[in-house]
Amino acid sequence: VENLELLHWLRSGEHTVEALISSGYQGAAYLYEGTQGRRVIKVATGSGIVGWVRRWMIRREFAIYRHLAGVAGVPHCHGLLDEQFLVLEFVDGIPLSELGRDIDSHNTFYAELLQIITNVHDAGVAHGDLKRRDNVLVTANEQACIVDFGTAVALSDRGGWFNHQLFKLVRQFDYNAWIKLKYRGDYKSITPNDRPYYRPTQLENLLRIIRRGWRKITFRQYRKARRRTRESESS
Q: Which stretches make up the ABC1 atypical kinase-like domain (predicted)?
């Protein structure tokens, strides 16, 4: 029954801008409130080659969530409708990027987040985009939840050598991201217990150099400082 209600809601165009949560390279995400509670619906929008790629990405993410069934700290997946609507549990939380303060139980929270990351890896999935603070939610009781597995890598017995090496690489990305989030980029403060988790890869080092060069070329730090000054003057 819920699936029929969802399809009617999606096809009728009722998922207007008011229900829009976010939009990006995969399409759009909407908040649906139905008889069974709230759901997040990821929709593969677009036509032609763009629409085809986005539908493929939605199907791929659905396959990732099947690996993660039963893993705590990850939204439950309620299914894939019409090969283009991914139905996920709504998690009531605030992204780390919007929290605006440190977490009261800092060490407990990040220990829990590390356990979730490890459990995700044990399920054969590496997230790959945890440095993006939007992908980690903080619930009202300061529990962690990882969202958005659009770029995740799943370990496959049929994937061969390349798949296994890619999984190992992205798995290390996740641990490095955990360190960055926990220590807010202050790598000199990493404790001896956490040090083994941090092993920067050559690819990450290269990307870091490119980002630093780009910031200098575009005067990004200068523009950010100017913006903060204007905001403080206006407040």
A: 74-177
Whether 132 and 193 share a structural domain: yes
Query: 226 near 218, Cβ under 8 Å?
Result: no
Is residue 102 within 8 Å of residue 183, measured between CB atoms?
no
Residue 235 lies in a domain: no
- CA–CA separation, 167 and 147 (whole Å): 18
29 backbone dihedrals φ, ψ, rounded to 5°:
-125, 135
pTM: 0.83
Q: How far apart are CA 154 and CA 66, in angstroms?
A: 10
Select from 185, 206, 184, 183 the least CA-distant residue to 194: 183
Side chain identity, residue 182: K
Count of structural domains, the chain: 3
> Which one, of 94, 74, 105, 192, lies nearest residue 134 by Cα?
94
Q: Show Cβ contacts of residue 34 under 8 Å, excluding neighbours closer than 6 positions.
A: 2, 5, 6, 9
Q: Which residues pair with 30 in a beta bridge?
A: 20, 41
Q: Which domain holds residue 225?
A: 202-230
**Residue 12 and residue 32 in contact, taking contact as beta carbons nearer than 8 Å:** no
In contact, 79 and 36? CB cutoff 8 Å: no
Q: What is the pLDDT of residues 16-51, one digit of tens each?
A: 667 888 888 788 899 998 877 899 999 988 889 998
> Which pLDDT tens digit goes with each residue over 68-83?
999 999 999 999 998 8
